[in-house]
């Protein structure tokens, strides 16, 4: 018999209290006990792997492909999936930390009424928060999502990287980065402060440990300046100072940007990096964000001072998308030397927008397309950050509610 609303609330309160003192996998025992108490069957948590190709169970069971499965459909669309199973109804719910996709929750239920569905959705929301909290100090979840060891320079860079996706209904920033296990000097960063979305993309010289260190120092310098309230010009100057002080023989290119989610003003500083791309009303706006080139970060004593960098501004239209990328994206080439190219890159985003695909899913498929174009071998890091401004909360990539 299903519990009453009061009983269900009491059971959920006990679950919330218990997970605080549970280890990363002990949480699942508490969840299974709660599920049994409210009349549910088997429950399994699946986390997406590092390359977003497989959904890996935290307990027993086989990994499931993101492509071609019901579980993958829930992950890709960021919406629940319900099918008939051998033991009743199989429910797949997306696990998300805010806008960031983490995996899916599988629930087997003998029947599914509205109160039970609501409890399952609340359980998925709680699990996402718990996993996010506990993976900050445990390697358990990380080990489940890696198919093989990562390089030392990659481990260092990944320790600095934020979640792949963040934002609100008014705007989102989502990113992908490959090769997942062998990063060199590419990195991205994004953060949300009140009404402002802060974004950075970096490409450090070389493809070794020093490259990873260069990108890490630049990212730390940017974060330090941002958290002290610096504007883009001051932030760039602090990154420059950090690199010239601690790594005087190294340099990197990069873009530091902000998007005001209230006004739609996009501001950026470009330090010898590929110019951002603007997609408006389903079309690429050629040259819309191209400006005079400036020097890379870290070349002290050459050209204008860092605090004299130019801050550019444009006002976006509702629904506009801005793409930041490293040259490893467009210069990826196949066996015949044919590059992936800017046109194919932009066209991929435009087609996905027309299909009303969630932005994180667009980048997941795009980076896999680039991977396949190079027959599985990245000769350079490839990093993409996609920004969307949806002031009315109804942009083309707004995720449906779970």
User: How many strand segments?
Assistant: 17
Percent helix, as a range, is: 25-40%
Strand content: 25-35%
End-to-end CA span? 25 Å
Alpha carbon gyration radius: 22 Å
Structure description:
- This protein is of the alpha+beta class.
- 34% of the residues lie in helices and 26% in strands.
- It has eleven helices and 17 strands.
- It has a six-stranded antiparallel β-sheet, sandwiched between helices.
- α6 (152-160) packs parallel to α7 (209-227) and α7 runs antiparallel to α8.
- It is globular and about 70 Å long.
- The relative contact order is 0.11.
Would you kindly provide a brief summary of this structure?
This protein is an alpha+beta fold and 402 residues long. The chain has helices spanning 5-19, 26-37, 70-77, 114-134, 140-144, 152-160, 209-227, 232-246, 327-330, 342-354, 359-373; strands spanning 43-48, 54-57, 64-65, 81-85, 88-97, 100-109, 165-168, 171-178, 186-193, 196-204, 252-260, 265-271, 277-280, 283-284, 312-315, 321-325, 382-389.
Question: Which structural traits does this protein have?
Answer:
about 400 residues, alpha+beta, six-stranded antiparallel sheet, 11 helices, 17 strands, about 35% helix, about 25% strand, globular
Secondary structure elements and pairings:
Blueprint: H1 5-19, H2 26-37, E1 43-48, E2 54-57, E3 64-65, H3 70-77, E4 81-85, E5 88-97, E6 100-109, H4 114-134, H5 140-144, H6 152-160, E7 165-168, E8 171-178, E9 186-193, E10 196-204, H7 209-227, H8 232-246, E11 252-260, E12 265-271, E13 277-280, E14 283-284, E15 312-315, E16 321-325, H9 327-330, H10 342-354, H11 359-373, E17 382-389
Antiparallel strand pairs: 1-2, 1-6, 2-3, 4-5, 5-6, 7-8, 8-17, 9-10, 10-11, 11-12, 12-15, 13-14, 13-16, 16-17
């Amino acid at each position: 018999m299903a519990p009453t609303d009061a009983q269900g609330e009491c059971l959920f309160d006990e679950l919330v209290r218990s997970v605080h003192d549970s280890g990363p996998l002990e949480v699942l025992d508490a969840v299974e006990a709660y599920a049994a108490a409210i009349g549910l069957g088997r429950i399994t948590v699946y986390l997406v792997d590092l390359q977003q190709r497989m959904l890996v169970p935290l307990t027993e069971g086989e990994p499931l492909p993101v492509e071609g499965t019901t579980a993958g459909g829930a992950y890709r669309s960021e919406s629940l999936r319900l099918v008939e199973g051998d033991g009743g109804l199989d429910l797949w719910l997306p696990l998300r930390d805010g806008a960031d996709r983490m995996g899916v929750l599988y629930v087997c239920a003998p029947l599914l009424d509205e109160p039970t569905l609501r409890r399952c959705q609340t359980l998925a929301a709680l699990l996402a928060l718990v996993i996010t909290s506990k993976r900050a100090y445990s390697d358990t979840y990380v080990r489940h999502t890696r198919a093989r060891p990562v390089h030392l320079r990659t481990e260092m860079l990944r320790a600095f990287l934020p979640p792949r996706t963040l934002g609100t209904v008014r705007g989102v920033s989502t990113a992908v980065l490959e090769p997942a296990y062998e990063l060199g000097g590419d990195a991205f960063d994004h953060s949300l402060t009140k009404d402002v979305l802060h974004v950075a993309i970096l490409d450090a010289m070389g493809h070794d440990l020093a490259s990873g260190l260069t990108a890490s120092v630049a990212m730390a310098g940017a974060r330090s300046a941002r958290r002290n309230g610096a504007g883009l010009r001051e932030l760039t100057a602090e990154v420059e100072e950090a690199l010239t002080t601690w790594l005087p023989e190294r340099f990197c290119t990069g873009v530091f940007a902000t998007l005001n989610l209230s006004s739609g003003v996009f501001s950026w500083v470009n330090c010898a990096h590929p110019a951002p791309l603007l997609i408006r009303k389903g079309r690429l706006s050629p040259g819309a964000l191209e400006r005079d080139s400036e020097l890379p970060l870290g070349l002290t004593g050459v050209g204008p001072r860092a605090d004299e960098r130019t801050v550019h501004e444009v006002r976006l239209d509702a629904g506009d998308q801005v793409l930041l990328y490293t040259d490893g994206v467009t210069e990826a080439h196949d066996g015949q030397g044919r590059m992936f190219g800017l046109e194919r890159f932009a066209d991929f985003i435009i087609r996905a927008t027309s299909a009303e695909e969630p932005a994180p899913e667009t980048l997941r498929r795009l980076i896999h397309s680039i991977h396949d174009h190079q027959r599985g071998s990245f000769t350079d890091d490839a990093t993409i950050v996609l920004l969307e401004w949806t002031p009315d909360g109804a942009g083309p990539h707004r995720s449906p509610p779970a």
